[in-house]
Structures are given as structure tokens and as C-alpha cells.
Amino acid sequence: MVAAVRAGESLRAVARRFHVSLDTVRRWVQHAGELRLDSVDWSDRPDGPKASPRRTPQSVEDDVLAWRMRLRSESALGEYGAVAIREAMLAAGAAGALSQPLPTLPACPTLQPLPALPPSVRTINRILERRGLFDSQHRPRTAPPPRGWYLPDVACRSSELDYFDVVVGLVIAGGPEVEVFNGISMHGGLVESWQTRSVNAQFVRTALPDHWRRWGLPVYAQFDNDTRFQGPHQHADVVSSVMRVCLSLGVTPVFVPPREPGFQAGMESFNAQWQVKVWHRFQHTDLEAVSAKSALYVGAYRARRAARIEAAPDRRAFPTDWQPDLQAHPRGKLIYIRRVSEQGQVSLLGRQFAVDLPAHRLVRCEVLLDTERIQFYRLRRREPLVQPLIGDLPYALPRRKFRCD
User: Fold this and answer.
1) What is the pTM of this model?
2) Are 377 and 264 in contact (CB under 8 A)?
3) Cα 106 from Cα 95, distance rounded (Å)
4) Do 165 and 182 contact (CB within 8 A), yes or no?
């Protein structure tokens, strides 16, 4: 290329002939300069030293490896990782004579005198990794399952799910205690927040229809296992008033496993943001002041996520003639995400049901109230698209008068 340019061809013509970029031709012409072609150093090494001046000296790396070998065979604790190596090197250096052995280890004549300060734990780990001396491989990282993976139509974004949760333990200085009932949609990020002195089942079953009347009905409403949502746990076959309101509107209640916050991650994240941006940010004098600041924050939150809300799955229109009837026998479907116990059972509706799965596996339990069945589906995060039916049992919800919770 350089010879062709020196013969009179243009840089662009040479680039086309040799199928390289114009910058490549220009760089090599500048590299050759006015020198004869046979005297030009055509090696393509970058400028600068061959080794980084900040790299740990080879002698220090050899010392690290020698200490590791010694600790692996002679350590009373059997520890020979980066922390143990650095502690041994520090102890040997603090003894004054660096070549002397540790008090608990015999002398090793192959070890070289230590530097004034041994490498850090992180540097020692890099040395061990560079030399291929890690005993175990790195843990493989698998891609996370899609959002809402435990409900197939939510995972494929054909249905919307609304999370709901309660924030407790907030007290206004010199004033009343405050509880906050928050909600957020999974795909759209549509948020809502209610502040009151006490969030009970009556408050929830009033707030939910108001929210859905304004924004439309989702397919699912997800809750934790709080008695405000699920009803008392000491009785069997309980369908709470909140669940009855959801079912009467065609919304399927979903209850996630107890003490597993991962299923409520989107809700917990918004709860934390609300407390930072509203509760801790301002000095509140009364409940009305909290509600005013919260309304401003919720409005700004929705405005920022307007495009996401618009792109979310469609929500159904709220029925104009709907009236709550808590005494009507529930119809529709209830969903419980549960883990299999040591006894091979799952717990829901105050009862135990046997399933053919090992302990601690996840199961989606669908209570079909209309057909009086319970179906169990196996769940695995590593195989979110594979959810086989593993059990189908008869179950009839008793018909009895509902005592309002």
C-alpha cells in the first residue's frame, strides 16, 4: 500500500484496491514516513512498555503461589485462599525476620523474603485466577425469567397484573400513626397510593374499585398473605371480602409464597421509593399533608412513565352496573403460588393438599370455583415456559353465610 501511494496512486484508490479503509492506508503511510520500505518497522505493537508498570512483580506472584502451596498442605485450619495467604504473609513479615516460619507452620526454605507490605486480598485473587489455581469454577449466571413468569399470559404481556401492599410503622412526630396502601401495575408501572390511619379489609375493598373504575380492570391482582387480603388463617375455606370484590369484577386474586419477597419485588421497590421520596423527604404535620405530598409524587411518577403505561396490556372497562355483593357465592378462579413442604404438601385455604413433587419446589395452585377443582402446576425459574400439570383434585367451596371481615 505504501509503495503504491509513493508511486503516485491516491489514498482512496489504494484503499479500494486492497479492500481496506482509507484510515488504514493513511496510518501506514504516516508510519513509514520518509524511510525506505525495507528499513521500516512494520510490527503492529502499540507504543508503551510491554508490561504494565503497575503489574505485581513476578517474584511476588511466585511468593503468593509458594505460600498457597504451603498452607494447602500444612495449615491446621486447611485454609489456603486469598485471605489466609495474606494473613500468613503479614504474620511472617511482622515477626521481624521475613524468612522465619509462622508460629503454627514449619519453615519452608523455598519462600523468598516478603515485600514491606503483601498484596491485597483482591490482588492475590487475581494472581490465583491468572495462574489457574481456583479450585472451583465461577457460578454460571442464567438469564432471569420474564416478568410475571409464573403466570403464562402475564409473562407474554397479553394480560396485566396489579400488585398491592401495605406500608406500616410510619408515625408523624407528635401526631398519629400512618399506614399506606400502595399499588403498581407490573407492565405499565401505573401507581396509586392511599394514606390512612389504619388499612383494614374494608378500606382495601373500597379503594380497589375506585382505582379500577378510573384506570380499568387488570386480569390479576396480586397480594401477599396478609389477613387484610386473604382473611383469617385459622379457619379453612375462607374467601375474604377483598377476594370476593376482585372475583365479582372478574379479577383473579393471586397470593404469593409466604416470606418470599421476590414475587413482590416490583411492589417492594415502589414502597421503598415512596418512603424515600415522600415520607422521609418532608416534615409532615398531619395526615392531610402526607396525602398532598403523595398525590404530587404519584402524579409526577405517572407522567414520567406515560409511554410505558400506554404500551402496557389493555385493561377491561369497569362495569357500570356493578354493585358489591359479599354474600354471593364466589365464582371464578383463585391462584396461590406455594412451595412444597417437607411432607410433600402445599397449604392453601387452610387445608393441606398432597402433590407429587420434591420438597421446596414451587407450585401454582389454581382453585377453579365454577368447576369445583384445584389444579397444580410445577414451576421452575430455569424453565419458565415449562409448567406441566402435576395434579387435579376435587374441591368444593362450602356454601355458607359470609361474615364480613
Assistant:
1) 0.69
2) no
3) 14
4) yes
